Amino acid sequence: MRQQQFDVKSYPLWTALVTPFNDEGNIDFDNLSFLVEQQVAAGNGLLLVGSTGEGLALTEDEQETIVRFVCKKSPAVPIMVGVGGFDLMTQQNWITRCNDLPIDAYLLTAPLYAKPGPIGQTQWFRALLQATDKPCMIYNVPSRTGVELSPCALAKLRDEENFWSVKEASGSPLKFSEFKKALPNIAIYSGDDALLPEFSLLGATGLVSVCANVWPQATQLYVAQCLNKPQSTAFNLWRDAIETLFSVANPIPLKVLMHQLGQISSPLLRAPLTHEELTCLAGITEAHYQITQWYQSQTRRVVNS
């Protein structure tokens, strides 16, 4: 079992890892092992059983099996575990189950469907933060939860020592700026791959990424360039490529492309998602070609310099 602990604050890129299934709908652990090795080779942090990993379509036992399996591989990068649902006690119990595992951080999502106000948000996250002593990232994703997190509500949690960061995925630079102002000592990560160039100008620490699943090394370079020179014209290429991965609900296009490339053995997703939603593959095929060409050109430039 994994022993090493990692400084999560030193990782600008976290890959929201997909959960690969076989054609019978069971977790494909051979594929999962391969995907973890790809991310470790690129040096990317691992986020397990998040929304891209279809965490809510997995049973709690399946989630724990995935986390234990990855921990046993002893990856030389940090592991963050997703926490999401609508029942507080269930989420606290999930954290308790994971606390004894050699993981490094949690991603805490707003309660689904209930749409709490600022007081309820503060109480929800304080209860989860106090269920562990591991660093926690709080996730603002109103398109999935139905509620915008309040910067003022999160500001009341600054006294919680393990409140490490926010994953901002509302798609709004204005919202990002509000979080940055309300939480000056909290790291703010982009939860939108395509918006990292804009968010970098506003002080983003890094990215929690979908596209790093299929382009782990190229995305690592993309993040580095965004954080170092956020005016690069190459980001138009990335924006267009990333848009193809969200042409229907995430992670449908991602899994279809990964299956095309032989990274996973099946494009299967858990219901209600299905790979049959993506009827045209030309966009993701072209996106992969463009990103591959870009990455090769960048690496040749480094070799020749």
What can you tell me about this protein's structure?
With 305 residues, the chain is α/β, with parallel strands linked by helices. The protein has a single domain, classed as TIM Barrel. It contains 12 helices and 8 strands. The protein has helices at residues 29-42, 60-72, 88-99, 118-129, 142-145, 151-155, 173-182, 196-201, 216-228, 235-244, 252-260, 282-304; strands at 13-16, 45-48, 79-83, 105-109, 136-140, 163-168, 187-190, 206-209. Helix 7 (173-182) links the parallel strand 6 and strand 7 (187-190). Helix 10 (235-244) runs antiparallel to helix 12 (282-304). The longest helix has 23 residues, at 282-304. The termini are far apart.
Question: What share of residues are in beta strands?
Answer: 5-15%
Number of β-strand runs: 8
- Taken from the alpha-carbon principal axes, the silhouette is globular
Largest sheet: 8 strands, parallel, barrel
Q: Largest beta sheet: what is the strand line-up?
A: 1-2-3-4-5-6-7-8
Count of individual domains: 1
